[in-house]
Amino acid sequence: MRNFDGYIFDIDGTLTSTNELIFSSFNYVTEKYINRTFTLGELIDFFGPPEEAILKDLTGDRFEEARKDYFEYYNEHHNRLADLYPGIKEVLKIIKDAGVKLGIFTGKGREAATITLKLLNIYNYFDLIVTGDDVNIYKPDPDGIFRFINEFNLSNEKVILFGDSPADIKAARSAGIKIGSVVWDSYAKDTVLAMKSDYVFHTVEEMKEFVMGNI
Question: Is 190 a known active-site residue?
Fold first, then answer.
């Protein structure tokens, strides 16, 4: 029985193991331009705006140079530091083959999101990609979810968001859709679990079984 007509995915920590790449890229640039690096916790605190907004705040009038270096580093080290979580492509294929709409709602900027989705060969699975560059207010604001719902004329109760962060939970609840929290690589696992999502997935296999049971 088809319970959902639309599946929305976050990228980092949900589809892709990219957090190490992001942290490494930021510290490469900040060490070069402002002579300092940041701890994991400090970098996580920056999250919300897309990369370019964060870089602009950090590097000021050297932003254009820093931006160029960031994306060169991100692209060049992607194959070494990033990958899909095993089984993710199979989940996406199941949804795509069923003719159900697939979307992305990420805080990443358009350039980084495109690099990652294309290098990991999943870009073409998605019917709509909403990035941090495409919204006026960043996640947890639900703007990206509403764009997906409106684009395909879907009912809120027939849409689910998969994500690894508290912001994903807040966004889904604000939009009136279901939230499936994934905690296989969440940097905020304890907080996510305490927020009592509609569904929680500890492994990709659990998510796959859920999708297969709802297609």
Answer: no
